[in-house]
Amino acid sequence: MKKLLIATKNQGKLKEISDFLSDLPLQTVSLSDIGIEDDFEETGKTYKENSQNKAIFYAKKSGLPAIADDGGIEINALNGAPGVKSRRWLGRKASDEELVEHMRRIAKELPKKNRKAYFRTIVSFALPNGKVWSSFGEVEGEISEKPHLKLLKGYPYRSFFYLPKIKKFYHENDLSGKEQKLYNHRYKAIQKLIPIIRKELGIKI
What is the CATH number of the domain that holds 106? Predict the structure, then answer.
């Protein structure tokens, strides 16, 4: 069975991407599964740059096709911040809990009529030879004044991201399988990549 490396150390992303690829007849492996401890420093100015460079780095390092992503939350009232710096808004070592506390303050200060926000991502699929393909996904919502009571590990901002159309937080424990497909920005991006993954890995439909 073909192997595909999911190039992330974020356990939330690892589970999510694995689930979204579960219909493909391939074996998804993590960095720890194959003994790779190297960190990739995201120095790019865009999601695409970080996503592609990360996928290529780990594909070459492992000798396996790899999938990686970069994305973030963009808050309209903050002119799109934190955006590409979402994970590093408070510094590279900030914990989920610290980001949640920071967002508590932000959420209280946002104007009531301008709370719109987006989760945006670029997912990239790379081969060890350096070829790479990318796709985009997004979901629109708003920042809630009060967060979801349960923290979703690896996803601190989702505790504040509310989907008014279905009156639910963007929280995997609250969304049905159908709602995940309709509203998950990473799912949307991965679906666009699946035909390319099938073709490049020789996976027949």
Answer: 3.90.950.10
